[in-house]
Input
Amino acid sequence: MKTLVLVFALIGAAAPASAKTYEIDPAHSSVSFKIRHLVGRVRGRFEKFSGTVDYEKGKPAAWKAQADIETASIDTSVSKRDDHLRNPDFFDAEKCPKISFKSRKVGDVKGGSAKLYGELTMHCVTKPVILDFQISGETKDPWGNLRLGASATGTLHRKDWGLTWNKALEAGGVLVGDDVELELDIELTAPKP
Output
């Protein structure tokens, strides 16, 4: 009997702890971007999004992320421009209502930083992407909820997803740049046991 108890204890000790799944807290998170317009940059954000991060400290092989963004929630602070971005010239929000990301693996880990390899679906097109991913901390809030901070950045070439609309300028060049800089700053909560 003692041997049996010892075997089960060893099996339990050897079993890997599973990563916690944290859910994005949209009230304390942002999904934003910037892109060249003429000689400056336009900044924008998406107001409606959800997602999760699987995280276990010191075990990056267990890290995973997935997110969905409502395309129609785009906001560049100019309603006429936002309406244009929602139409078929750009995101075609009616036909393609979501931008989705799902990670496939983590690489180049240095402490809480890593490369997050995954697939991004935007404008109804799915392509591989690599994001710079950073875990900024894990703590309990004043109400006893376990929270995780994370960020992700990356640059996308919008034409890879069929976002090709542009206007040629009389002086040369085009109205809108091709490269979009993404920035996600997210705070997540773990469900209470």
In short: The chain has one domain: 19-189. The chain has two helices and eleven strands.
